[in-house]
Structures are given as structure tokens and as C-alpha cells.
């Protein structure tokens, strides 16, 4: 089977690309908006127990929204990047377990709802929740700064700043709906400053590892032909920005708007084309 990295990879990859393109609006807009309503309804006791915070629905919905990012990265995935991703998976479990058992580096916290099977108190699907946030930040920083070898300090700094911004949106919404809570409430929508110090540490390590292993030439070529690579970040903005809006957390809503504006600055994301990209299943 002939492959062509410059034009999007193998026949299987092209079929996946076509599927995502045909269903972009459903994946990037409908799923997160419905998800925001369902999660808030669950938190407010408006759904019966079988549906409220149903772990299967949470995992399936998250996986669907991650699909554009996963498909976007498939042609870029080489041996070095695969090793880095596996290392990040192990790192994600380790630092989350450390945080749950010792309170370091995020501060003492606990999960309030089930996010699927748990191992040692850590959700088994944790990498599905965490790693895409870092990948989105790294890809967006690459688009904004450029892929040149001499620009890595700027990409690294911007990537870390984007990770922190993402969590400044995520945590207030997650606390509002009871996904997790902190033993000591902080000044930022009940989230303590220690959480963001922890994200600065863990996010910097994750971004640096990806920055050092991403095949830049392949990534740049892929991004030229893959307009949906950051649709997962669109889903994130709509889901968690929407939940923050429903709870009146206006500063996180504004930061979600900053993320969306950053996406639009790349010139590779077109809201009009997203709205038009409804396939046969969506008509």
C-alpha cells in the first residue's frame, strides 16, 4: 500500500480524513454543546441516575471529540513520537497518583464523579483527558510561531502558556459541576493557586518532551492539508466555555474566547467552512 506523507498518508488515513471532514460540525460543535447541557443537567440533578454523569457517555463523548486530533496526528506518528507519547502516558498516571495521595503538585483534591474504571484512584482513561490538551497547545504554538528550529524557545514558552490557559478554563467548570474538588478552596472560582503551579510544572515537562520529539517537517506538511487538526480545541472551548457560561464564571469564558481567537489567527481554521461541513448523516 503506497503512502504519501505530503498528501495525507495511506488510503486508510485518507478515508479517516474524509469521515472527519464530513462530520466536522457534528464532532466539533454538536457533541460539545450537547455535552455541556448534559453535564450541567447531571450536576443540577435534572437527569435520572442511569444518565447523570454516566461514565460510558462521558468516555464516548470525549473520544468522539478527540477524533480529529487523533486522525490529524496519525501520519505524523513515528517511532520517536510514539515513544514520547508512551512516556507521557506513564507520566500522566504517575503524577496524578502522586497528586491524589500526597497533594503535590496540584494541592489536595478528589474526584467527585466516576470517569470510568479507576486504578489506584486514578481514571484509567486519564491520558484521553490530559494528553490532547497538551497536544492542542503544542500544535497551536507551532502554527502561531512557526516550525523553524531556531524558534523552539518561543514555541515552548507559548505552548506552556496555552496549557495554563486551557486549565484556567477547565478547572473552574469542572469544579462547578463536581467533577473534582479541592480540600482548600482557592480565590479563582474555588480553585487553589497550587493547582496552577502544578500545571506549570507538569505542563512544562509534557510540552518540552513533545517539542523535542515532534517531527517538525512532517507536522508542518500535515497541517497544510489537515484543516481539522485543532477541532478538538474548538470542542474544548465550546464544552468547558459553555459550562463556565452557564455557571456565570465569566473570566474563564473570556479565556475560552482568547483560545478561540488564537485559533482564528492561524488562518487555517475557518468557522464558515466548519458550519458547512455536514455530511449525509448530518443532513
Strand content: under 5%
First-to-last CA distance? 34 Å
Query: Runs with pLDDT <50, length 5+?
Result: 1-8
- In the sheet with the most strands, the strands line up as 1-4
- What is the share of helical residues? 55-70%
Number of E-state strands: 4
Query: Structural class, from secondary structure content?
Result: mainly alpha
How many whole angstroms does the radius of gyration measure?
A: 18 Å
Number of helices: 11
Mind describing the biggest β-sheet?
2 strands, antiparallel
Mean pLDDT: 91
**Approximate shape:** globular
Order of helices and strands: HHHHEEEHHEHHHHH
Number of structurally distinct domains: 1
Brief characterization of the structure:
The chain contains 11 helices and 4 strands. By secondary structure, it is mainly α.
Features:
283 residues, mainly alpha, two-stranded antiparallel sheet, two-stranded antiparallel ribbon, 11 helices, globular
Structure explained in plain terms:
The chain has helices at 11-22, 24-43, 55-73, 79-102, 126-145, 152-176, 193-213, 216-225, 231-246, 250-265, 271-276; strands at residues 109-111, 118-119, 122-123, 180-182. It is mainly α. The protein has one domain (5-282). A two-stranded antiparallel ribbon has the order 1-4. Strands 2-3 form a two-stranded antiparallel sheet. Helix 6 (152-176) packs parallel to helix 9 (231-246). The longest helix is centred in the middle third of the chain and has 25 residues, at 152-176. InterPro entries: BABR_hydratase, CruF, CruF-like. It holds the Pfam family Caroten_synth. GO terms for molecular function: lyase activity.
Amino acid at each position: 500500500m503506497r503512502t504519501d506523507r505530503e498528501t495525507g498518508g495511506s488510503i486508510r488515513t485518507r478515508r479517516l480524513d474524509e469521515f472527519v471532514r464530513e462530520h466536522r460540525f457534528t464532532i466539533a460543535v454538536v457533541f460539545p454543546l450537547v455535552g455541556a447541557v448534559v453535564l450541567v443537567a447531571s450536576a443540577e440533578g435534572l437527569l435520572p441516575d442511569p444518565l447523570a454523569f454516566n461514565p460510558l457517555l462521558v468516555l464516548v463523548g470525549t473520544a468522539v471529540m478527540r477524533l480529529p486530533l487523533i486522525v490529524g496526528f496519525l501520519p505524523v506518528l513515528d517511532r520517536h513520537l510514539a515513544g514520547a507519547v508512551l512516556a507521557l502516558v506513564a507520566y500522566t498516571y504517575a503524577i496524578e497518583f502522586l497528586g491524589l495521595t500526597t497533594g503535590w503538585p496540584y494541592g489536595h483534591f478528589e474526584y467527585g464523579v466516576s470517569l470510568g474504571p479507576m486504578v489506584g484512584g486514578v481514571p484509567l482513561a486519564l491520558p484521553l483527558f490530559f494528553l490532547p490538551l497538551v497536544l492542542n497547545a503544542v500544535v497551536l504554538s507551532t502554527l502561531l510561531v512557526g516550525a523553524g528550529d531556531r524558534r523552539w524557545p518561543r514555541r515552548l514558552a507559548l505552548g506552556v502558556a496555552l496549557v495554563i490557559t486551557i486549565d484556567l478554563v477547565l478547572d473552574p467548570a469542572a469544579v462547578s459541576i463536581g467533577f473534582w474538588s479541592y480540600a482548600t478552596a482557592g480565590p479563582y472560582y474555588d480553585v487553589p493557586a497550587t493547582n496552577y503551579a502544578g500545571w506549570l510544572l507538569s505542563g512544562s515537562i509534557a510540552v518540552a518532551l513533545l517539542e523535542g520529539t515532534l517531527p517538525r517537517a512532517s507536522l508542518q506538511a500535515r497541517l497544510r492539508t489537515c484543516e481539522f487538526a485543532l477541532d478538538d480545541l474548538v470542542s474544548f472551548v465550546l464544552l468547558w466555555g459553555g459550562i463556565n457560561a452557564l455557571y456565570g464564571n465569566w473570566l474563564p469564558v473570556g479565556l475560552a474566547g482568547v483560545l478561540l481567537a488564537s485559533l482564528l489567527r492561524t488562518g487555517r481554521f475557518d468557522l464558515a467552512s466548519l458550519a458547512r461541513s455536514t455530511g449525509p448523516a448530518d443532513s
